[in-house]
Automatic annotation (TrEMBL):
Protein name: Transaldolase
Alphabetic keyword roster: Cytoplasm, Schiff base, Transferase
NCBIfam families: fsa_talC_mipB
Compartmental location: Cytoplasm
One GO cellular component term: cytoplasm
GO process terms (BP): carbohydrate metabolic process
Species this chain originates from: Chloroflexus aurantiacus (strain ATCC 29366 / DSM 635 / J-10-fl)
EC number: 2.2.1.2
Entry GO MF terms: aldehyde-lyase activity; transaldolase activity
Main EC class the enzyme belongs to: transferase
Lineage of the species this protein comes from: Bacteria, Bacillati, Chloroflexota, Chloroflexia, Chloroflexales
Claim: Cytoplasm is one of the keywords in the record: yes
Pfam families in alphabetical order: TAL_FSA
InterPro entries linked to this entry: Aldolase_TIM (IPR013785), TAL/FSA (IPR001585), Transaldolase_3B/F6P_aldolase (IPR004731), Transaldolase_AS (IPR018225), TSA/FSA_arc/bac (IPR033919)
Domain of life where this protein originates: Bacteria
Length: 217
């Protein structure tokens, strides 16, 4: 399973990219809005220069015509840019039109497996089920990933990748991999938490103490 970073913050992207683990980046209008005053095109093109993988830029139009217009523009900024459209009928129409231009789409805000099946049929490159937001409703978000993985597996024509979105904690990453996700997009904080373990810290301390005692004996 690949790891994407779910942020528009360039410092976080630089840091995670330097760890050698990043295969792509997802952004959305909320994440872009957090980067106060920064120009959308400048942020997306800089991310696309930093990470050589799919960089999701989200459309804001509600109609397919507008999504296609925005998608064509964003995709012209850099070959790594892919276009995020919502899981709506207009989104499906936009995916199939953008696919004819050779532009890859990430169908976002997916909350049921029928949306995922239809997105795949329309030619989506990525489907993004929102695990954490489903969990928030009291329903098991990871069950959605498992169901979509089952549906996609039994249909050889489907090549759409399953991206576990709305990841809230390190255990979500493990569960997404076991449930059959191809990608998990993670907030920077969750990746930092994932690499922290008290026994790792204690082990380093012990090894250093033993090494120093050896030098002084
Ligand atoms: C990624 O593509 C999604 O936009 C993101 O994971 C949503 O996460 P949230 O539910 O924490 O806002």
């Amino acid at each position: 399973m690949q790891i994407y970073l779910d942020t528009a913050n360039l410092a976080e992207i630089r840091e995670a990219a330097s760890w050698g683990i990043l295969s792509g980046v997802t952004t959305n209008p909320t994440l872009i809005a957090r980067e106060k005053g920064a120009d959308f095109k400048a942020i997306i093109t800089e991310i696309a220069e930093l990470v050589d993988g799919p960089i999701s830029a989200e459309t804001i139009s509600l109609d397919a015509e507008g999504m296609v217009r925005e998608g064509l523009e964003y995709a012209s900024w850099h070959p790594n840019v892919i276009i995020k459209v919502p899981s709506t009928t207009e989104g499906l129409r936009a995916v199939s039109q953008l696919a004819k231009h050779g532009i890859r789409c990430n169908v976002t805000l997916c909350f049921n497996s029928v949306q995922a099946l239809l997105a795949a049929r329309a030619g989506a490159f990525i489907i993004s089920p929102f695990v954490g937001r489903v969990d928030d409703t009291g329903v098991d978000g990871m069950a959605l990933i498992r169901e979509i993985a089952g549906i996609y597996r039994q249909d050889r024509e489907i090549t759409t990748k399953i991206l576990a979105a709305s990841i809230r904690h390190p255990r979500h990453i493990v569960e997404a991999a076991l449930a059959g996700a191809d990608i998990a997009t993670c907030p920077f904080k969750v990746l930092q938490q994932a690499m922290r373990h008290p026994l790792t810290d204690r082990g380093i301390e012990q090894f250093l103490a033993d090494w120093k005692s050896r030098m002084s004996s």
